[in-house]
Amino acid sequence: MRGGGLIREDRRKEWSQALKKAENFFKHGDRDPDAVLEFKASQTEFTLFDATYMYASLTGRQTYEGLVFQSWFILKHPGAILDSEFRAEMRERADRLSVRADDWSLFLDLLKSRRYLPKDMLDAFD
C-alpha cells in the first residue's frame, strides 16, 4: 500500500483522489481536449509525502531530505496521518527541535546542513 496506509480512514478517499487527479487528467485527456487541470501546491505536498514514504518502505532506508520533508508535512497536516509509531516519532523529533511548520528558514537550513540534528537522528537515514 502506498503512503495511504498512514492516512486516517476518514481522509483516505481525499488522499487517493488528490494523488490520482493529474494521472486521470492526462490518461483521459482525449475525452475532453478543453479540460484544464488546476495546479494546487498542496497536492504536491501529498505526492511528495507519498514518494518519500514509499522510498523508505521499499528500501528500508530513509533519506535525510525525506526525513526533513516528512517532519514538515506531519507538522503542517497533523490530522491527515494516523496515530502511529511513525507519526509519534516525527512529532517527538519536531518537539525536541522546537520546530513549527511555518518556520521556513529552519527547514531550509535543515536541508542545507545536517549539523542542526542530534547524532541519534543522523544515524536514522542514508
Characterise this structure.
It is built from 6 helices and no strands. The model has no long low-confidence stretch (mean pLDDT 79). It has one domain (3-122). Helix content is 58%, strand content 0%. With 126 residues, the protein is mostly helical. 15% of the residues are buried. It is elongated, with a radius of gyration of 16 Å.
Uncertain segments: none
What is the share of helical residues? 55-70%
Number of strands: 0
Strand content: under 5%
Helices, strands, pairings?
Blueprint: H1 12-27, H2 41-59, H3 64-76, H4 85-96, H5 104-112, H6 119-122
Helix pairs in contact: 2-3, 3-4
Key features of this structure:
6 helices; 126 residues; 0% strand; 58% helix; mainly alpha
In short:
58% of the residues lie in helices and 0% in strands.
